[in-house]
């Protein structure tokens, strides 16, 4: 089964927006975000409501920047990390756009971009809205421990990015195009440590990267920049090592959104994670670089760990996935 | 924004399978299921593992019945009701088919059928596998109370269907075709009672039904049979009343999977619910009736309540959605 699809008429990015949290707003990519919120509560009484507010706001910003009215949008493809993807659900009901809820963990943004691009290229939509969010505090208390407890973290653990991003995809003219995508398989390498998700996900990124280059026949130096979603420092090193074993060396052209989004001294252990991690870096930094002509060809590889607390507690391993989307702008 | 899409070359059903739980196996549709398991543990040590086992098995049955090898399947579209859709994730990693994880609560089966049909009709897939599951005990302890507690239920509450269903969609020839679909919007009618999800979802089914007939121009007597996903007795009565207010009377031609799947004396309160509810009735009973020529035109309206425990605890209302798919066989 071929995982890659190339579009004869590539869907284009009509508009995009990003909102980042306080810690992300102190990181090296701060200037690339449309808005930075200075408090995790964002004037709401719960973190969950803050996440929904940020998500709805970023969607409205993306529509405005694209000069697209929500009535013109055919489908809203969205997800997040909370149980029952409630952030996406509540944004969807505020928008009233026909809605497909998605969940591929931290790869959900890339899952949405792939499905959105296919719906447009297949002739079923003229405009599609893709949106995701994640929030440090909502994720922390859902997946790990009560935040008040201040539990120590292992060096391989990652910091969930607070933020939301939205992209309006369309047909026809647009600066940034999506010429091809590679859909990931769910894989399982027998990893069991939910505090080392970067390590668990690295082989999925490796598998999807190899499939992408093999199926497209592109040379390994085709892309100006490639970034995995949230492998962070340790996971990314494993990926680099796996590639070296195949004599593939991307050098500086391969990086990771979870490494890029924070400075090493921001006390984030291995680096960033979360659905918003790849989304903020892609729709913030990368789209800006593409638009300004600093790079022309980018491959993003959204990575996701498909576990839950229950599967970990029941002694099961961590399935992983990685979806790749290329963005090009000339 | 038009919610309905009609396919010039309708995708077809190549194969399908259903596995039902013990209670469903004692219900009026028992003879339509491919397999009935007689214990909620299904020879596993946890209910969650039982759900995954049933889900993987039904997928393999559907592939076999369709005479399709898993290597021939382009995409696996799947979801379930557990946090992080772990049942779907673990089946996906066992299959190794490029995977899109979905979540629209109990409407996930219909969400998957719509996206699968579009991926085929759009030329991005020749064969797509759609699968869902739900399990009384895994859902009960995740969303409600420890099962050991035996908490009393209100009359409007519903019984989560234990079961799994899978459908192989393809292009070209096939008896059952999917000529058109209507994508639902997430709506919110200010309902707050998580023990009355049928009542919450009824207006979403109403909205999607009206959109379907308005946009297609089909007459109200076009379909031989129509069934909502899991409104159950009270929700379905509300839907009938909403339709009557518009002078629409479908009579016997409109029913509900949550009413059909159990006998009234099975102590299920208002009726069935869960992702497997509409999936078992559609891929079990309805596909059989279509194949045997007892009916020719069916419209299924998968219904979903997009809440979570957290949103209920934080005093938020229940967003709802309904997706419609028509199946025709001559």
Automatic annotation (TrEMBL), chains A, B:
GO terms for molecular function: acyltransferase activity. SUPFAM superfamilies: Thiolase-like (SSF53901). Coiled coil: none annotated. Gene3D superfamilies: Stage V sporulation protein AD (3.40.47.40). Pfam families: SpoVAD. InterPro entries: SpoVAD (IPR010894), SpoVAD_sf (IPR038369), Thiolase-like (IPR016039). This is Stage V sporulation protein AD.
């Amino acid at each position: 089964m071929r995982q890659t699809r190339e579009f004869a008429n590539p869907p284009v990015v009509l508009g995009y927006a990003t909102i980042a949290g306080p810690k992300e707003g102190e990181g090296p990519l701060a200037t690339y975000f449309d808005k930075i919120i200075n408090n995790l509560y964002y004037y709401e009484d719960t973190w969950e409501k803050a996440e929904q507010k940020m998500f709805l706001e970023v969607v409205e910003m993306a529509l405005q920047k694209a000069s697209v009215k929500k009535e013109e949008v055919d489908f809203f493809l969205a997800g997040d990390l909370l149980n029952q993807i409630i952030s996406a659900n509540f944004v969807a009901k505020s928008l009233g756009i026909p809605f497909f809820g998605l969940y591929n963990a931290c790869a959900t943004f890339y899952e949405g971009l792939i499905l959105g691009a296919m719906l447009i290229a297949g002739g079923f939509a003229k405009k599609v809205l893709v949106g995701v969010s994640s929030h440090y505090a909502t994720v922390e208390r859902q997946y790990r421990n009560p935040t008040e407890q201040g539990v120590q973290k292992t060096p391989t653990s990652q910091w969930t990015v607070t933020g939301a991003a939205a992209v309006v995809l369309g047909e026809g003219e647009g600066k940034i195009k999506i010429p091809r995508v590679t859909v990931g398989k769910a894989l399982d390498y027998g990893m069991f440590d939910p505090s080392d998700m970067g390590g668990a996900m690295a082989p999925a990124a490796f598998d999807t990267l190899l499939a992408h280059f093999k199926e497209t026949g592109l040379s390994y130096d085709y892309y100006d920049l490639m970034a995995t979603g949230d492998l962070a420092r340790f996971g990314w090193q494993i990926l680099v090592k796996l590639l070296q074993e195949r004599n593939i060396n991307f050098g500086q052209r391969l990086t990771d959104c979870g490494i890029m989004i924070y400075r090493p001294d921001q006390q984030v252990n291995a680096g960033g994670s979360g659905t918003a991690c790849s989304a903020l870096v892609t729709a913030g930094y990368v789209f800006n670089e593409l638009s300004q002509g600093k790079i022309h060809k980018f491959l993003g590889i959204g990575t996701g760990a498909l576990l839950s607390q229950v599967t970990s507690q029941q002694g099961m391993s961590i399935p992983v996935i990685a979806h790749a989307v290329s963005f090009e702008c000339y």
